[in-house]
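name: query_chain
kind: protein
chains: 1
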Amino acid sequence: MSIMNGREPQLRAGLIGLGAMGRNHARVLSNMDGVRLVGVMDPAGDPTGAILAPVVPTLRDLLAIGLDYAVVACPTAFHEEIGLELAANGVAALIEKPLAPSVEAAERLVEAFESRGLPAGVGHIERYNPSLQSLRARLEAGELGEVFQVVTRRQGPFPHRIADVGVVMDLATHDIDLTGWVTGQQYKSVSARTVSRSGRPHEDMVAVVGQLTDGTMVNHLVNWLSPLKERSTVVTGERGCFVADTLTADLTFYANAAFDNEWDVLRAFRGVAEGDMIRYAIRKREPLLVEHERFRDAVEGKESDIVSLRQGLRTVQVADALLRSARDEVTLTIADRVGAR
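structure:
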């Protein structure tokens, strides 16, 4: 750290990649307390001229500026190469999701940062969405009773900026991570089917049926083929269901009015009836800003709930199983190779 404003220490942050997400990272880094964006790496430069920090063409040039940590927002195919170089130079890293394009590459990144004791995290931004944070807290408090099913829908138009991975690695990793996180469970088995209709070599639609370690059923529908943009997570249980809309950061509860039935004749029947609907008032902070604040705290050595590389590895492992399941048309059991979430 160095004294940048004469009063308080600031971390020297670097950014790798100036795509759509990279520019969002640059915006947040440029306005954060306790952080100074000191350099950006992108071989294409900054044609807009909007980045106030120096923009350099190579990682060596960026490292020469001097960094406390870097945000890796380049295409997934380069995550391993860049991450290993950052670790070798003692630089902490926040790596955009997915952690890597393969399980093996993700494992090498975990080893590189853990062996050096460097703070490192994965940018699974949905964990910082206010609706999902509220949902997780309510599930932990037992407000839904026994959880039966988690259903996610994540669909919208094809993003032309994505060229190196398909919809499973790019979008479904959001749903894999958030499902394990909000329930506190891991995936036990998955069955997936994919299609490709956009003329690209990668899949652009996936449908998933899975089971978590506690028996909870999971369904994911993810695609790049819909003109409707949708981001929803529905958790159904004994007392009703929660619906989280992560586009609007709204959380709604639909109560099961039959849950506390006092009529003796019906008490033995575990049915469902429409009950009250509650839309919760939630403080809505930008998830990307919260994610950066948590990672800044981790780099400073403070207690912080970042998404660890091991958790990111687990998500890549499940995503890899989805692709293999779809390819071979089989149901796969997820081996517990990386420990608890």
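note: The chain has two domains: 2-124+289-305, 127-285+316-333.
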